Amino acid sequence: xxxxxxxxxxxxxxxxxxxxxxxxxxxxxxxxxxxxxxxxxxxxxxxxxxxxxxxxxxxxxxxxxxxxxxxxxxxxxxxxxxxxxxxxxxxxxxxxxxxxxxxxxxxxxxxxxxxxxxxxxxxxxxxxxxxxxxxxxxxxxxxxxxxxxxxxxxxxxxxxxxxxxxxxxxxxxxxxxxxxxxxxxxxxxxxxxxxxxxxxxxxxxxxxxxxxxxxxxxxxxxxxxxxxxxxxxxxxxxxxxxxxxxxxxxxxxxxxxxxxxxxxxxxxxxxxxxxxxxxxxxxxxxxxxxxxxxxxxxxxxxxxxxxxxx
Length: 310
Prior knowledge:
Helix content is 73%, strand content 0%. The chain is mainly alpha-helical and 310 residues long.
C-alpha cells in the first residue's frame, strides 16, 4: 500500500484546459470575436487598395491630357480623402473633423513645398536632371516639414481654417515662377513605373498616418495629411523627362485644383460630427468636385514644354 502524499499521489491526467470542450470555450472566450478580426483585416486591405487605385486613375488622366490635368487630378482628395475616411472609421468622427480642419491649415506647408520646389528648380537649372530633380524634392519636403512644425503650436479655429487654406493657395499662385528650360532634349517617359511609384507612395502615407494617428493626435495628423507623396512622384518624373520648364504647369495646376480640396475639407470639418460619415463625405465631394471642375474649365496660361509637346 502506497503511502499517501506527494510521492504516492496519482499523476494528474489531462485537465479541462486540454479537453476539446475547454478549447472550444477558449475560442469563444469573452472579448474575442472573429468578426472583429475580419473587420480589421478588411480595413487593412482597403487601405492598401483604395488610395492607390485612385492615384492610378489620376496618373492615367495626366498621361492622357498632360501636366495640367495631372496637376488637377493630383489635387483631388484621392489620398487625403481615404486618409480622413480611415481616421473617422478608426478614431471617430470628432477626430476626423479636427484632422480635416488641420489639413486645411496644412495647405500652407503644401504651398511652401510648391514654392520651394519651383525656386530650387530655377536655381539648379544648370545641374544635370539626375541631380536637380532629387534636390528639388528634398528641399521641398524639408520646407513642408519646417512650415508644419512652425504652424503646429498655433491654435487656428475651425471657422478660420478654410480662409487660411484658400489664402495660401492664392499666394502660391501669385508667387510661383516658371523655371527656365535647361536646354537639354526631352527624355523618355516611364508611365508604368511612375504610376506604380505614386500608388505605392499613397499606400505608404495612408497606412503610416492612420497607424500613427492615435499617437500623433488630430492636429499633427491633419497637418501631415496633405503631405505631397503622389504629387512628388509626378514632379520628379516630369523634371527628369521634360526638364524644369514643365514644372510650372504641373505646380500651377496642382495649386488651382486644391481649391476644390478646400471646399471638400471645409464641409467635412463642419459636418462629420453632426451628420455622420456617409452624409459628410457625400456633401464634401458634392462641394469639392464642382469647384475642381470649374477650375479645370477656367483658362490659364501654360508655358511651352521643352522639346515639344508629347
